[in-house]
Write a structure and sequence with these properties.
Number of domains: 2
Radius of gyration: 21 Å
Helix content: 40-55%
CATH superfamily of the largest domain: Pleckstrin-homology domain (PH domain)/Phosphotyrosine-binding domain (PTB)
Strand order of the largest sheet: 1-2-3-4
Number of strands: 7
CATH topology of the largest domain: PH-domain like
Oligomer: single chain
CATH class of the largest domain: Mainly Beta
């Protein structure tokens, strides 16, 4: 039993492409002196891609037979299923009730898109249903309650970094002409 909840990949991939453009464009618009343009754009683009990876591309909530993990930009909270009492979704917040506190996580569910799209609107409550089903399965399943290992595919965003090389050189050349 493995599952995950992610933020919108489409939005975050578009954001990652925008970060490549921003990182590549800095040497064209900012006076960097005698530094080579790539010495500025590549580290800056790498940092911007890491921000996108941490804030949007990583799974926000993952679960397996042993429990769930809520991932934040800096750090994570892991909880075993035995300590989870309820899962409740309200608007764009998911509340995970524990014995001594609650974890509240906000996810992407824009009210204006829900008004425009019936398909988007029908997604309301899906996160609660998935996590509640996982909670119920953990209570009734006789399977081993071990932590499963999964590859974090969010690191694939760094495959965009080589795009910054020709883009930086092109933007710098265009700014000089």
């Amino acid at each position: 039993m493995h599952g995950e909840i992610r933020r919108s990949r489409l939005i975050n991939v578009a954001g990652a492409l925008a970060m490549v453009l921003v990182g590549s464009g800095v040497p064209a618009v900012v006076d960097i002196g005698s530094l080579p343009p790539l010495a500025v754009s590549l580290p800056l683009t790498a940092v911007l891609l890491e921000v996108i990876r941490r804030s949007g591309l990583r799974p926000r909530i993952t679960w397996d037979g042993s429990g769930l993990k809520v991932v934040y930009a800096l750090g994570a909270t892991s909880v075993t299923w035995e300590h989870v009492y309820f899962v409740r979704e309200r608007g764009n917040q998911l509340e995970i009730g524990l014995e001594d506190r609650s974890i509240v996580w906000e996810f992407d569910h824009a009210w204006f898109l829900a008004r425009l799209s019936r398909r988007y609107r029908s997604r309301a409550g899906e996160n609660e249903k998935r996590l509640t089903a996982a909670l119920e399965e953990s209570r009734t399943s006789a399977t081993a309650k071990t932590r499963e290992r999964h590859i974090d595919q969010s690191f694939l965003v760094f495959l965009l970094l080589p795009l910054a090389i020709p883009l930086t050189l092109w933007l710098k050349a265009a700014s000089l002409s």
